[in-house]
Amino acid sequence: MEIKKVCVLGAGTMGSGIAQICAQAGYEVTMRARRETSITSGKESIRKAFNKSVEKGRMTKEDADAALNRVKTTTVLEEAAKGADLVIEAILEIMEEKKKVYATLDEVCPKHAILASNTSSLSILDIAMATKRPEKVMGMHFFNPVPMMRLIELVKTIVTSEETFNTVKAVSEKLGKTTITAQDTPGFIVNRLLIPYILDGVRLLEAGVATKEDIDQSMKLGCNHPMGPLELADLIGLDIIKDIGDAMYAEFKDTGCISPVLLNKLVVAGRLGRKSGEGFYNYQK
């Protein structure tokens, strides 16, 4: 099946990044968010990214202008999804909210449309069963920042059709990404490995074993990681780290996935990392 029109649900860091690379790859894109302020912010971040690419010689101004013009915006879900060949959902990690959205998508999208979730922790099958087309639902997990990170995790459920999978894989490759395939279990591949590692970094800080700077330096210089676990947690978002850990613990009962008290307190305080201006580190300076 040929994909021409893509609907992206969400205009935050992930949604706007996904919309950006889809438009750059030549797709007609409609980006939807519930609030007009989110739409404005998301479109502006896309514009700035294209301008920076022009300044660095990675795009011509004509190509950047054309790509930006391919991004339409709306706050109306039905308007965004009407006529879409592929919907990529990047809304809040709340199962009931996703189910409501997918039930609506099932009613308003064309019968051939594929519905893909960017969730990093929730069951794709549970989401799919909110529709009458579960064979056309799968996971398409991008990484932050979307334009820079080369990986997409493709997540199949026990009912995802081969046609759906192959179509989404082809789109991912057109976006310039490398794909890996995971089954529908919490954390998939990357977060199944990553989240316990990050939570252990938080536990070291909580126990007073070392400062946050030394914990991060240990992994950057000792293991050649580009970022330490606490820096990475701030980049991902501490609320997201907690949500993924909670989902993994609920499924596997692995105590290594339980959120440390320190992480819980930071989330309650609204110190969510880079996106809030402060997490383990302060970004407001």
Q: Any idea what the shape is? A: globular
Mean pLDDT: 96
Rounded to an integer, what's the Rg over CA atoms?
19 Å
Could you tell me the strand content as a percent range?
5-15%
What's the tally of helices?
Answer: 12
Write the element-wise H/E pattern from the N-terminal end onward: EHEHHEHEHEHEEHEHHHHH
* Termini separation: 49 Å
Uncertain spans: none
User: What is the number of E strands?
Assistant: 8
Q: Helicity level, as a percent range?
A: 40-55%
Helix/strand-derived category reads alpha/beta
Main sheet overview: 8 strands, mixed
Order of adjacent strands in the largest pleated sheet: 3-2-1-4-5-6-7-8
Write a structural description.
The chain is of the alpha/beta class. Helices cover about 50% and strands about 15% of the residues. It contains twelve helices and eight strands. An eight-stranded mixed β-sheet has the order 3-2-1-4-5-6-7-8. Helix 6 links the parallel strand 5 and strand 6 (about 135-140). Helix 1 crosses helix 2, helix 2 packs antiparallel against helix 3 (about 60-70) and helix 8 (about 190-205) crosses helix 10 (about 230-235). The longest helix has 20 residues, at about 35-55. It is globular. The mean pLDDT is about 95.
